[in-house]
Amino acid sequence: MGELRRGWCPQMYLFRSEPMQLVQLIIPIEAAHVTISYLGEVGLLQFKDVFHTMFLMYQLFQLNAEKSPFQRTYATQIKKCAEMTRKLRFFKEQMLKAGFCPKKSIAGFDNNLDDLEVKLGEIEAELVGINANGEKLQRAYNELVEYKLVLVKAGEIFHTALDSATEQQREYESSHIREESLDTPLLLDQEMSSDSSKPVNLGFITGLVPRAKAIAFERIIFRATRGNVYIRQAAVEEPVTDPVSGEKIEKNVFVVFYSGERAKKKILKICEAFGANRYPFSEDLRKQAQMITEVSGRLSELETTIDVGQMQRASLLQTIADHFEQWDLLARKEKSIYHTLNMLSLDVTKKCLVGEGWSPVFATKQIQDALQRAAFDSNSQIGAIFQVLQTKELPPTYFQTNKFTSPFQEIVDAYGVAKYQEANPTVYTIITFPFLFAVMFGDWGHGICLLLATLFLIARERKYSSQKLGDIMEMMFGGRYCILMMAIFSIYTGLIYNEFFSVPFELFGPSAYACRDLSCRDATTVGLIKVRPAYPFGVDPAWHGSRSELPFLNSLKMKMSILIGVAQMNLGIILSYCNAKFFGNTLNIWFQFVPQIIFLNSLFGYLSILILMKWCTGSQADLYHIMIYMFLSPTDDLGENQLFVGQKTVQIVLLLLALVAVPWMLLPKPFLLKKQHQDRHRGHSYAPLQSTEDTFQLESNHDPHGHEEFEFGEVFVHQLIHTIEFVLGSVSNTASYLRLWALSLAHSELSSVFYDKLLLLAWGYNNIIILIVGIIIFICATVGVLLVMETLSAFLHALRLHWVEFQNKFYEGDGYKFSPFSFALLDDVDE
């Protein structure tokens, strides 16, 4: 690790990951809990699972000796913590249902896990009992409410039926005392005598049925009993709380009259199938009144009892809410502590715990101080032993970031975590990412809109950071400083393009062009002459709206895209040299960096120089013709396309260099790797090879006796693929940067269309209503298309340019993150 620091590139903040060290801790078992707790407060030590390492070693020697999670030392304590976490989740659900929010209590609390376990158990038992009693009382209350409705509605049905029967009886008696006429049926007396001699006993069932099922309920009963029933229903005006489901349902009170036990059994089964609640009912009016009085009295008593229970439950939940944050934090801390302790192993004497882990070199003093404080506070006779181990294992990658650099680091990590002390693209991404975004989004009006939205998020940073936001809002808030940089650069490029919602302004002085005479006052395509020096900054406003605006801006933005792309790709190749120099890999310097920088600049670096020379000299040379015939006819005279003396000779030399660079990348490196491998095994070279992407073949395959295998064919094929990828990628990647031109043009044209076809068109009608509608549509189109969709599109394209065109020149991204044991990270864990 000390040799790695002697590289050419100096250490700088965020450019290289923090130097890491593998440390071993030997902790007395009586001080283990306190020690791990203090290390969690430091938060700069990533523990390794010793049991997992032992398992891999035992697998290597074909032994079976791994402890399952339930057989480890502190499995019982973890079960306790998991049970407490379950109880706390139950408390939280109950609090949220009742409308209580956990509060951050300032009062002190005894951090005793056993006391907390007992207390949580008692509170859970009490809360479960209160909930069970409350549910029973509420169900009884709902049943009594339904019963009272049945008594009232069924009583009305019976009263109506009784009045109707009395009226019919009176009509029958009045018709019977009349004299018999010739029209009277002969069998009437026989029928009446037979009915009176055989009285029919009718039974009835009362209850409530959901109104949505009432019609089907009635039809099924009618068909099941072959019509030998009489059903009456009365609708309940207000929804009724169902005693079983607890939901408010619209119901009907029903009364079913039947004859016979078979019909009764069928009706009871149908009631159960339809979820109809049955209640007893008496025909006696006195008993009905008595039962209504009794039910009303019981309802009043139950209301009082339920209110008292609710008050008791609310008081208990308020007590829980006051201490919930402390309890939850303690439970999560203890669970994480015991999880970490389970990653340690007992020594032979079973008096100490032995653990290993990664830590930054700068954290050594903090860790040692924590170990000393733990030994003192736990009254341990001996202190913990801290020692640094030597290892060839690849350490984790740790970058110290803040709220400004964090979103840019996340953008890079989404592609792949940097290998240990590999050059970090984030240093350059902080500038290049928002700049490439702004090249495609260049409009200082739209940039101001983005800036205002970002400043709003930054102004409410303290409030939003303590709240749980939605997925999209949380992503925007997390990248607020990235969006801030994007907005600032968009304003900058918008000033260069001289576009404010597609409208040009003379911000830095008057235009360099003016009308030749009065006839061209309203014209922007003819009659313009240059009367002043060039516009001092950005595009002259006279170009906008002219006939040559599109060809001029196309040429400008296309050539600018090529210059930016070649510059960024060269930066990537230079960073590959930094990596090779830092890791001491001379093969990568001479047979990767040198041919790559020659090949890229012999073709596209030369094109960039031609673009700059054409801009500076004002030449009319055709760059397409120059680049095409540089390959097809390199010895032909350039004629009017010649930009400088000796250009033909320079092009021939550059073409030959590009051709030589291809076998330079392909052939020497595999043979030199093979020679290094042979020399090392003959004892001619004792210097170990570095673990890089090019020597991975030397370290990937080992036999049980430790002899490394070298497959020359695999190494050669890998180098061939790498060479072809770079040669073809140089062309495709340069062309890929033309997306900067394409998206910038699309953004500008869309903005111009919205301005001309919505705002100016509505203004031309001289109607206030049409103008207001036009302004509203213009705002919606600008926000929806340009500020949302175009922002996302430019963001994704800038992301692709960094991941593919820039980072593939030097960035491996095959490392793994440093994940320390830290109490500060407990809030990020989704329990």
Keywords:
831 residues, alpha+beta, Alpha-Beta Plaits, five-stranded antiparallel sheet, four-stranded antiparallel sheet, 13 strands, V-ATPase_116kDa_su, hydrogen ion transport, transport
Outline:
Belongs to the V-ATPase 116 kDa subunit family. The chain contains 24 helices and 13 strands.
Description:
- Belongs to the V-ATPase 116 kDa subunit family.
- It is found in: Membrane.
- It holds the Pfam family V_ATPase_I.
- The two termini are 38 Å apart.
- Among the domains are: 141-168 and 201-299, 2-Layer Sandwich (Alpha-Beta Plaits); 405-498 and 544-809, no CATH class.
- It has 24 helices and 13 strands.
- A hairpin with a 6-residue loop joins strand 5 (240-241) and strand 6.
- The protein has 831 residues and is α+β, with helices and mostly antiparallel strands.
- Mean pLDDT is 85; it is low at 1-11, 55-65, 179-198 and 684-707.
Compute the CA-based radius of gyration. 43 Å
- Summed up, the helix count is 24
Shape: extended
Distance between the termini: 38 Å
Structural category? alpha+beta
Number of strands: 13
Estimate the mean pLDDT confidence.
85
Main sheet record: 5 strands, antiparallel
Task: Classify the helix fraction into a percent range.
Answer: 55-70%
Strand content: 5-15%
Ranges where pLDDT stays below 50 over 5 or more residues in a row are: 1-11, 55-65, 179-198, 684-707
Family: Belongs to the V-ATPase 116 kDa subunit family.
Organism: Morella rubra (Chinese bayberry)
GO biological process, one term: vacuolar acidification
Pfam families: V_ATPase_I (PF01496)
